[in-house]
Structure formats: C-alpha cells, structure tokens
Amino acid sequence: MKKYKIIMTGGGSAGHVTPNLALVPKLKELGFEIKYIGSKNGIEKEIITKENIPYYSISSGKLRRYFDIKNFTDPFKVLKGVMDASRILSKEKPDVIFSKGGFVTVPVVIAASMKKIPVVSHESDLTPGLANKIASPFCDTLCVTFPESLKYIKDNKGKLTGTPIREDLLKGDKERGRKFCNFKENKKVLMIIGGSLGSKIINESVRKILNEILKEYNVIHLCGKGNLDESLKNLEGYRQYEYISEELPDLMALADLVISRAGANTIFELLALRKLNILIPLSANASRGDQVLNANSFEKSGYSMVIKEEELNSELLLKSIKDLEKNREKYLNSMKMSKIGNGVNNIIDIIKKSANI
C-alpha cells in the first residue's frame, strides 16, 4: 500500500492553524504522513510542535493593504520564502498541499504550483483574505465556509465544504473544565475569547465591569499574548489565560455564554456547540472587514447578538449580557435549526481526490 504524504501550511494567528489540526486525525487514519511549513516565530510553530508534527520554518513577508516602508522589502522575503519552500518540497515530495491562509502560505503555494503539486486551500471567512486572494491562481481548489463566498472565487475553483472543527472540541468535559479553573462557587460561566492575539478594547471593557459580572458568573478570560493583568491574578471567580489549547474543549463545555471576536473558525465552533454568544467583530477600520461580514451573517440567521466595536463600552456590554440571557431560548432554537455541519469530511474528500487516492 502506497504511503501518501501531505504538507500543511497556515499561520499568523491561531485561526489559520487550528483548522489544520481538525483534519489531522482523519489524515492519519488514512495513512498520510504529515509535515508542516510555517514561519520562524509565528504562533503556528508553538501549536504544531506541541502536536509532534515535523515542522519546517521559512522566510515570509507580511502582506499589507496599506502603505508601509516594509512593502518595498517584504516581497524579497516572500521570494526567499518561495526558494525555502521549494527546497523543502523537493526533499519531501508531498502528494498534496493543504493551505489554511495567512501570509506564510503564499510562498508555499507558489512553490507547490511551480512543482505541479496539487494545492487545496481553505477560506474560513465570508470573503477571501489577502493571502488566499494572492495564492488562488496557484491553487487547484479553494474550499469555503459560507455559501455567499462562492461568488468571490474565480475559475470554478470554489467548493462549499464548511469549516473543519476539531472532533475533540465537541467532546469537552464540563466537570474537567470546572476542576481546571478551580471555581469555588457553582455559578454560570461566562467565557471571553479575544482571539489568539487578544483585544485591548474587549479586555478593558470586561475588566471594568468584572465586579458586576462576578455577581452572576464565574469568568474565563482568554485575553491573548501579553495581556494578563497581574492585579487580578487572585480574584475569586476570575481566571485569565493568554491562550488555551489542550484544555479548550473542556472550557468550552463549561461555558454558558461566550463573548468573542467574529473569526469564522470560532463562530462556527460556537454554533456547533450551541453556545449562547455575543460577537464583537474586529472593526473594518482595523481590518478588511471580514469579521463584520461574518458577524452580520450570524446575526441575520439568529445565532448571535452583535456589538459593533466602535460602539463597545462597559455599560453596553453589561446590558447586552442581560438581554441575551432574557432571549436565551430564541437564540438557542435558531442554532438548533441550523443545517451547517462540520467540514472535516468534505475537505478530506477533496484532499483524497487531489492526491489521487
């Protein structure tokens, strides 16, 4: 029996890495040998090496939609990244590449195309990110999460698959989560997810009303790298973490209500888990507006309450938490009626076809 090999790539934020991990168990089941290409210092290196997946680092320049002096130098980093990736691909000879987006993927996808290695990419957001836009001419298939996304994909490369959700995330243990947090009181649990890079405005808004929130809830706060507040370290009922990976399924199982950014991976996980949620999408002023579109789609479907970042303040956040609780059943019923499933099997089928299995 032939041994198949896949190289996965994606990085810059956890959202460009965790969907790769969702595919790993099925790929291993099929007998795939898995390697990973990422950046030298990105969050992907820490996440992937913890999974004992062989990891290669390459040079990668950041892709920007705005003027920056580095826009003149970073193309040379991308070019070096293509050469780095080309050497790795020549050595490993993979049957297929799976790319999850983020600037580190561009050199890998270009190098793979030059070597005639099939490339399957995935876009979680409603509109393609800059990396996937640049890389799409070099891809064979671009998998998407939202039906609305297909109109943005050229040359009939788009396939509606849904987003891959880790199987272990759906099997969290509530009591294990409670034990991990060591909460003394048996209150409802409010979880705040600011993204792997954190959100200053969400962190500050939550911390300003912590005393009010703690009257009703125990709080799990995933505040992002470098955003721990040491003055709150021993506050009863409040647990803050820069980033959680292994224990996340248990903490998600424990949560009764979630306040989150609106990255596509996270919101589809919340939908799959039927978690009551408030979305605070990253402002279009600080991004390409993908989270705003994601959040609007979920609000329209009745899955989420949405607060615009520009309007966010502590008072509005507290009011929204209370309003969400009052309308709990309405939101939960909308989520229960959703027909959106886990994209793992759909994507695996496309990978198999691309690798000629």
TrEMBL record:
EC number from the UniProt entry: 2.4.1.227
Every Glycosyl transferase family 28 C-terminal domain range: 189-347
Residue ranges constituting the Glycosyltransferase family 28 N-terminal domain according to the UniProt record: 6-141
SUPFAM superfamilies: UDP-Glycosyltransferase/glycogen phosphorylase (SSF53756)
GO terms for MF: UDP-N-acetyl-D-glucosamine:N-acetylmuramoyl-L-alanyl-D-glutamyl-meso-2,6-diaminopimelyl-D-alanyl-D-alanine-diphosphoundecaprenol 4-beta-N-acetylglucosaminlytransferase activity; undecaprenyldiphospho-muramoylpentapeptide beta-N-acetylglucosaminyltransferase activity
Similarity comment: family membership: Belongs to the glycosyltransferase 28 family. MurG subfamily.
HAMAP family from the UniProt entry: MurG
NCBIfam families the UniProt entry points to: murG (TIGR01133), PRK12446.1 (NF009102)
PANTHER family on file: UDP-N-ACETYLGLUCOSAMINE--N-ACETYLMURAMYL-(PENTAPEPTIDE) PYROPHOSPHORYL-UNDECAPRENOL N-ACETYLGLUCOSAMINE TRANSFERASE, UDP-N-ACETYLGLUCOSAMINE--N-ACETYLMURAMYL-(PENTAPEPTIDE) PYROPHOSPHORYL-UNDECAPRENOL N-ACETYLGLUCOSAMINE TRANSFERASE 1
Protein name, as recorded: UDP-N-acetylglucosamine--N-acetylmuramyl-(pentapeptide) pyrophosphoryl-undecaprenol N-acetylglucosamine transferase
This protein's encoding gene: murG
